[in-house]
């Protein structure tokens, strides 16, 4: 089986003189050799795990898997590939639809085996539960805001109503990013317009 290894360190972790990448590569090579797989290449990014935008090697790898230039993706640790169970579930669903396998060494997720597929399915179920829970919390918080007479829409600047929404969503237990996602989905822009970001939401909340 042809596999591609993927490693990542954040910008802050670069000061480790490559040790982080070396450890990940070593784990991948050891497993590939043990399984007798054909290692096509090990690729790495130095980027945050929050977005694919700057993770060019991962984007290239996913494209190669989609085009069946390799049969599986191997990573040493889950947090090197995705930032949450929800994101990881999305990757696993893509792998299933495109007919390639995924191996995450630290979680024993290995969709080339029966047991590995079971673990993957459990994680997907947990991700779906988390997604629905977040949706419930968001709807509850928005109903509370509307009940107080807060207008939702597209104000020209960050108004008191927007701050109230942020407080309500954050108070419901959502992460900063999930609060930002909810505001964007409801059509409430930043003072400059456009999508919300976790850092912006956190700053407004702290200043309120």
What can you tell me about this protein's structure?
The chain has 8 helices and 5 strands, in the order E-H-E-H-E-H-H-E-E-H-H-H-H. The protein has a 5-stranded mixed beta sheet with strand order 2-1-3-4-5, with helices on both faces. The model has no long low-confidence stretch (mean pLDDT about 80). The protein folds into 2 domains: about 1-110, Rossmann fold (3-Layer(aba) Sandwich), CATH 3.40.50.1390; about 135-205, no CATH class. Helix 4 (about 85-100) crosses helix 5 and helix 5 packs across helix 6. By secondary structure, the protein is α/β, with parallel strands linked by helices. The chain is about 55% helix and about 15% strand.
Compact summary:
With 208 residues, the protein is α/β, with parallel strands linked by helices. The chain has eight helices and five strands.
Average pLDDT confidence is: 79
Give the neighbour order of strands across the main sheet. Answer: 2-1-3-4-5
Radius of gyration from the alpha-carbon trace, in angstroms: 20 Å
The succession of helices and strands, N to C, reads EHEHEHHEEHHHH
- Please give the largest β-sheet: 5 strands, mixed
What would CATH call the homologous superfamily of the largest domain?
Answer: Resolvase, N-terminal catalytic domain
**Fraction of helical residues:** 40-55%
Number of helices: 8
Number of domains: 2
- Determine the N-to-C terminus distance: 55 Å
The fold-level CATH name of the largest domain is Rossmann fold
CATH architecture descriptor text of the largest domain = 3-Layer(aba) Sandwich
Main CATH class of the largest domain = Alpha Beta
């Amino acid at each position: 089986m042809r596999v591609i290894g993927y490693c990542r360190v954040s910008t802050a972790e670069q000061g480790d003189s490559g040790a982080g990448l070396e450890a990940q590569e070593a784990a991948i090579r050891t497993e590939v050799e043990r399984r007798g797989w054909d290692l096509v290449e090990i690729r790495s990014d130095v980027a945050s795990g929050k977005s694919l935008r700057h993770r060019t090697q991962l984007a290239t790898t996913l494209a190669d898997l989609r085009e069946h230039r390799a049969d599986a993706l191997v990573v040493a640790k889950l947090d090197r590939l995705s930032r949450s169970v929800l994101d990881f579930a999305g990757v696993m669903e893509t792998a299933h639809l495109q007919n390639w396998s995924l191996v995450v060494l630290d979680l024993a997720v290995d969709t080339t085996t029966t047991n590995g597929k079971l673990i993957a399915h459990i994680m997907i179920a947990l991700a779906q539960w988390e997604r629905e829970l977040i949706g419930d919390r968001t709807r509850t918080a928005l109903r509370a805001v509307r009940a107080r007479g807060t207008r939702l829409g597209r104000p020209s600047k960050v108004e008191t109503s927007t701050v109230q929404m942020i407080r309500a969503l954050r108070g419901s237990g959502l992460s900063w990013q999930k609060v930002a996602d909810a505001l964007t989905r409801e059509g409430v822009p930043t003072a400059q317009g456009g999508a919300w970001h976790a850092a912006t939401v956190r700053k407004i909340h702290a200043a309120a």
